[in-house]
Each structure stands twice: as structure tokens, then as C-alpha cells.
Amino acid sequence: MAWLSEEERRARIEDSTRDRTVLLNQVLLAGVVLVASLAALTFGQIDAQASFVIGLSLVYGATGAAILVPWKRLPHVATAVLPIVDVIAIAFLREGTDAAGIGLLWAFPAMWIAVIFAIPGVVVGVGAITVLLVVLTVSDATQTVATPTVLLPVTIAALATIAALASRRSAAQRELLDKQARQLQHSVARARRQEDLVTEVLDAVEFGVIRITPTGDLVFTNEAHARLQGATDHGGAQLPMFARDGETPVAADGAPLARARRGEAFEKELVWYGPPGPGRRALSVTARPLHDLDGGAGGTVVVSQDVTAEVQALRAREDLVASVSHELRTPLTSILGYLELALDGELPESTRRDLAVAERNAERLLELVTDILAISDVTRHGVGLVLRPEDVDLVGIVTAAIESIAPRAAERHIDVRGETAAPVVARVDPHRIRQVVDNLLSNAVKYHRDGGSVQVAVSGDGVDAWLSVSDDGPGIALDEQPMLFERFFRADAVRNSSTHGSGLGLAISRDLVRAHGGEIFVQSRPGAGATFTVRVPLQPEGERP
Q1: With bands split at pLDDT 50, 70 and 90, how would you rate the model's confidence at 324?
Q2: 120-171, pLDDT tens digit by residue?
Q3: Is 8 helix (H, G, I), strand (E, B) or coil?
Q4: Nearest-angstrom CA–CA distance, 135 and 139
Q5: Would the pTM of this model clear 0.70, i.e. be above it?
Q6: d(CA 47, CA 292)
Q7: How far is CA 542 from the centre of its chain?
């Protein structure tokens, strides 16, 4: 019936229901009449055999009609014929036997009429039965009006009324269920259309999308996923995977999809598919947890994007920057050497001043080139930045850094002090950590006011080493603090001053600290100084007990 309209569907259902209702009601009455007739014959309670036979004939004739007549093809009012015939038939049966309770059989057609025509049917049916009962009682001189005679139509009226109300309530419930079913069908159809639309959209995009259940099963993948993460070689074998550096192999259980199926969440994980050489592909994969309506675990969504062109372009740019910077550093070193030699000789004061200016600018340029080389080195190696860790005392590194910055601090009368209570031994790359400390101290002195103070503290808590550099300088604006560790960022106050810098020192420091598995933080308020805190593990994660 999927091709029928709603009205046609409901009409067909009503027709089918009408046929079943007519048949069931009539067969039920015929069965009760059969039992009553057998009982009357058994106990010899037949008084008027002709009336009794007429009554039986009418009942079973109506039953045959209920079976043979296609009532669904007739008007709705036609179904009232059978209960009317049954009322008359029961009247003949009551006249043909003196068995008690035969009159109660009127309840069946009365309830049937009530179900068909509701309250008007109750009035008509019970009224007709009451009239017949009165006529039969009056026409039989041997009978008198008694309490059973009065109670019989009242009882039948009550039963018919209950049947009418129950039918009305059942019809209302059926209508409500039909309405809810239609709404549910519309909701399901709308949900399917939306699902189809979402599927078409996700199949049209260039990034892969995967939905994973809390148990790790894949319930949705788009076409781009098969092209990206399902990459195979010409023989059909799965391509090998490599980490961000493009050289470190990734095991099958370390693949982004395997990790996401275990419930891990990560952002922009870079993975290379295929061995080094042409044709390999770089994917940026993100896995984020989903939540159901109750806030519980709803699985994971994995999004993968082909970033091969972007990564290769960035690497080409960094290689070019590194190459140019290397080429610049060599002549700059030579220039600074010859300027230093020239300044050691006997020169007129004006010439010495000019050469000193040239030396300062050459040093600034060399510092900028060194920072660019450092940030390029970190960018090209990413998380695979080569570290050479060894057990070193961080207090010694800080002491050496303070001694190195002391001459520059003394020129501006800045007091740099170290606050250490005991040695703090950590397994780190001493050269890289010294680079971080030098950057923090250099910034603290460079952007400080004359006559200020800088404190450096080192401590350990058994798991991590903590290093802080604090000053009582002008502080940093709150809206600029989130951008301090971005490359080439310089605060407004610094850009408007005569203090020079590349804006790379803190970015380099952050990348070096993260390469050790640590983090760097800043706390500052305008006019209240700044504190930079570095946290690094005492032991690398893989070497912890």
C-alpha cells in the first residue's frame, strides 16, 4: 500500500476492520445461541417450537450472511441490518423457550449497534429492545411485569453505553496512534533525507571522515577516507607509515586510526604514507571524542586531510631560509672579525665610532640569522628534533648563563641573581636547555629598565624540574600574552622602542622545551614585571621507572 494516498490507506484499513467486526460479532452470538439452544433442548424447556426454530433460523441465516456478504463494498449503515435481525431473532427465541436468561442475549446486538453508531445507536437499539420486551410481556397473559422485566433493558442499556464509550475511546486512541505513527514516519523520512544529504556532502569533500563507536567499530566512512588512509601500493599491500619527520616508522598499533579506535584523542597528527621518495602522502589526522544526549561517551570522529603540498612547500621554504642564513652567517662572522681587529688598532675617534656602529649592526644581523637558523632547524625536524640528552645539573647551566649575561646586565646596572638551594639533575640536552635559559635571560635584560633586577630559580619535585626567570620590569599587556610564543611576534611597546629583536627567541624556547616533553608558561601584569616558568621532566617519558 505504499503507493496509496493517506485517505485511501485509511479507507482500506476501515473496510478490512468492518468485515472482521461483522464476522466476529455474529459468530460470537451464533456460538452463544448454540450453547443456549442445546441447554434448552437438554432440559426440555422448549415451549413454542415454531418460534424457537424461526429464531434459530434468523440467527444462523444472519451468520451465513456475515460470512458471505462483502460488507466492505456496502454502505456503512448496511452493517446495522444484522444486529437488527438478531434482535428480532432473540425475541422469537425468548417466545419459544422458558429458559431464564435468554433475554440477556439482546446485549450482544445492542452492544454491536452501540459500537457502530455510538450513543444514537444505544438509544435506538435499547429502545427497540424495550418496545419488543413490553409487547411480548403484554401479549402473554401468563406473564406479569416484574423486577427482572424492568432490569433487563436497564442492564442492556448500561452494557451498550459502556460498549459505545469503550469504542469511542478505542477509536480516539487508534486515531492518536495513527497520528503518532504518521509523525514518526515523517520524522524517519526526514532523518533519512538528512542522512543522505550529509552522506552526499561528506562524500563530496576532499578530507576523510570516520565515525567510531565507543566499542571501536566503524559505523561511517566517506569516500575520501578510502583514498587517503586506505592507501596501498600497486601490489595491494598497505603502504608503510612514518612519523612527522618522515623517517621514523609507525607501527600498525600506533597508526592514527588504531589509536582512535582505542579511544585516544589528538589534534593534527601528521603521518606520512609511503617510503621516502616521490608519490608519498602526508596526512593531518585529528580524533575528537563525541558525546551522546546524556553526556556519556558517544564514540570518536576522525578527520584526515591531505597536506602533502603544504608540508612540502613549508619544508622547501625552511630549506631555502636555512641555506640563505648559512650563506649569510659566514661573511657576517668574517666582517665582525675584521671589525674587531680594526677597533683594536690606533684609529681616530670619529672612525672608531663609525666602526662601533657597524659592529653593533653586524652583531644584530648575526643574532637575527642565528635565530632564523634555530627556528628553521626546529621546523624542519618538528617533533623529531634531534636531542642529545645526558644527566646534567641544571643549576650549573643556569650559573653559566648568568655569568655570560652579566657584562650586558652591568652596562645597564641590572642585578641578575640565581636562587638555587641544591643541585637539580635532569636528563636533558644541555646545549638546548642552555639556549632556552640564554633566551629568557637575554629578554629579561634587553626589555628591562636600567637599575632593575632579575631573579633565576631552579628546583625539582622528583618528577619535573622547574626553572623560572622573574624580573620587576614594565610587564606585559594581558591581551598580548597569548601571542608571546608565536614566531616574529613583538609587543607594541617593544616595536615602538629602540630595542631591537627578531621575535623568535620565545618561539624557539617553546619548541625546544616541548621537544623535551615539557612546557613553558608566562605570568605578568603591566607594571608588575614578568615571570617565565619552564617545566621539563627529570627523565624522558620512555626512561621513567
Answers
A1: low
A2: 888 888 888 888 877 777 776 555 555 666 788 888 888 888 888 888 888 8
A3: helix
A4: 6
A5: no
A6: 77
A7: 33
Please name every residue paired with 468 in a beta bridge, in sequence order, or none if there are none: 457, 533
Cβ-based neighbour number of residue 463 at 10 Å: 10
Angle at the Cα of 365 from the Cα atoms of 360 and 370, rounded to 5 degrees: 125
Report the DSSP beta bridge partners of residue 455: 417, 470
Q: Which long-range contacts (CB under 8 A, 24 or more apart) does 174-180 make?
A: 178/10
**Residue 89 to residue 59: CA distance in whole angstroms:** 6
Long-range residue pairs from 189-194, CB within 8 A, at least 24 positions apart, any chain: none
Collapsed DSSP state (helix, strand, coil) of residue 10: helix
SS3 letters across 398-435: HHHHHHHHHHHHHHCCCEEEEEECCCCEEEECHHHHHH
For residue 424, give the nearest of 383, 454, 456, 455 by alpha carbon.
456
Q: What cell does 29 get?
A: 452470538
> What are 58's three cell numbers?
434468523
What does the pLDDT look like over 266-321, one tens digit per residue?
Answer: 888 888 888 877 778 888 889 988 887 777 777 888 888 888 888 777 777 666 66
